[in-house]
Amino acid sequence: MSEAEAKIRTRGLSAWFGARPVLRDIDIDIDARGVTAIIGPSGCGKSTFIRCINRLHEMTRGARMSGKILVDGVEIQGPEVDPVALRRRIGMVFREPNPFPAMSIRDNVLAGLILNHGRPSRARGDEIVEAALRQAALWTDLRDRLGAPGTSLSSGQQQRLCIARTLALEPEIVLMDEPCSALDPVASAKIEDLLHELRERYTVVIVTHNMQQAARVSERAAFFLDGELIEYADTDTIFTAPLDKRTEDYITGKFG
Ligand SMILES: Nc1ncnc2c1ncn2[C@@H]1O[C@H](COP(=O)(O)OP(=O)(O)OP(=O)(O)O)[C@@H](O)[C@H]1O
């Protein structure tokens, strides 16, 4: 993987909560487009890693990071980078579906845009809502009830609505933190199907504790342990011929 091609590059990325180190010296290059899975046992720093990439980590009291994160070769921590603008380019989907309860489905999709740029015209809003719901595979189901509350949907639909809300901002990178952990297997399968579509257009980085899911949805996988990046390779290699014994022990279920 050449450095010039990497969409996201970290060099010596370390992170702390208070005095406690949770990421140590992570160097990784993530190519544009496709899905990269971040795997590893609970507490190994997976969420912290992706929260550094969109500068959410630094919003936590007492949390800090050092090292470099580059997106398209440009450092994202510099004082000249506006974290809010950065988060439009680097969207995030969280574990629990979190649509805004007081808002309609339509306004939920537009929420990020309204916050950033004000309410678009009716016609432009319609276009954005349709495009985002289509990408989230919700348009056919929801086109006739866009005025209903976002919370009237099933939890799987709510999570896809949150994905639509992220996509409405036309991000380049989509970070997902265990997006299926609150969903049943059928709803999880729908999100996985969606990932197969999104990989064509976006650079997706997904944290998952589900090995089968990582194997199904990702092209590349990074195994973290105790805040360190132990191994990073194409997903087939990680699952069939890992180089590091610790990766092998983890993927074969010996710990974690
Ligand atoms: N807000 C916080 N304050 C203090 N420590 C935290 C905070 N959030 C996470 N940690 C600690 O930092 C370490 C890394 O957490 P992180 O959530 O990044 O791990 P993870 O691999 O995503 O874990 P899990 O799979 O359980 O979510 C853990 O030991 C966790 O307890």
UniProtKB/TrEMBL annotation:
Known EC number: 3.6.3.27
Keyword presence, Nucleotide-binding: yes
SMART domains xref list: AAA
Gene3D superfamilies per record: P-loop containing nucleotide triphosphate hydrolases
Matches recorded under InterPro entries: AAA+_ATPase, ABC_transporter-like_ATP-bd, ABC_transporter-like_CS, P-loop_NTPase, PstB-like
Record's signal peptide: none
Stored CDD domains: ABC_PstB_phosphate_transporter
Segments forming domain ABC transporter: 8-251
GO CC term (a single one): membrane
Transmembrane segments: none
Entry keyword annotation includes Nucleotide-binding: yes
Gene Ontology terms: biological process: phosphate ion transmembrane transport
Enzyme class label: hydrolase
Keyword entries, A-Z: ATP-binding, Hydrolase, Nucleotide-binding, Phosphate transport, Transport
Domain of life: Bacteria
GO terms for MF: ATP binding; ATP hydrolysis activity; phosphate transmembrane transporter activity
Matching NCBIfam families: 3a0107s01c2
PANTHER family in the cross-refs: ABC TRANSPORTER I FAMILY MEMBER 17
Protein name, per record: Phosphate import ATP-binding protein PstB
Organism, as annotated: Enhygromyxa salina
Higher taxonomy: Bacteria, Pseudomonadati, Myxococcota, Polyangia, Nannocystales
Designated gene of the protein: pstB
